[in-house]
Design a protein that fits this description.
The chain is an alpha/beta fold. The chain has helices at residues 10-23, 36-50, 80-86, 88-95, and strands at residues 2-3, 28-32, 59-62, 73-77, 100-105, 112-113. The protein is globular.
Length: 115
């Protein structure tokens, strides 16, 4: 889990990582946030990152963990510690899918501080 301090550009990091993954062979990226309003805001704000490469249809924003993913997808989980705390069993089922996973946090519970 990567811990990125408040106001340090975590959303930009997440979306740059998503673009990098798509440009390097991932079929789809699923960005999981903790609320519907955040998922909608990030989709509105960051869809432009993917348009120059015509990749916007290969990114999905979710505010629940009830979605399908494939082996060549990447799951990027924002506020992973919060999602883990809400439903540990569902969180562990999510990160144990066949897809690759990146977890981010803005709290001190993250295990790798990149700020």
């Amino acid at each position: 889990m990567y811990n990125v301090s408040f106001a340090s550009g975590k959303s930009r990091i997440i979306h740059c990582a998503a673009l990098h993954a798509l440009l390097n062979g991932r079929q789809k990226v699923h960005i999981v946030t903790c609320t519907q309003s955040l998922a909608e805001r990030e989709q509105s704000e960051f869809t432009e990152y993917f348009k120059p490469y015509n990749l916007q249809d290969r990114v999905a924003w979710h505010y629940t963990i009830d979605f399908a993913s494939d082996r060549n997808d990447l799951l990027i989980i924002d506020e992973a510690d919060w999602i883990l705390g809400m439903n540990p069993l569902a969180f562990f089922e999510l990160i144990n899918r066949d897809s690759a996973v990146l977890c981010f946090s803005g709290s001190k519970l993250g295990s790798h501080d990149v700020s």
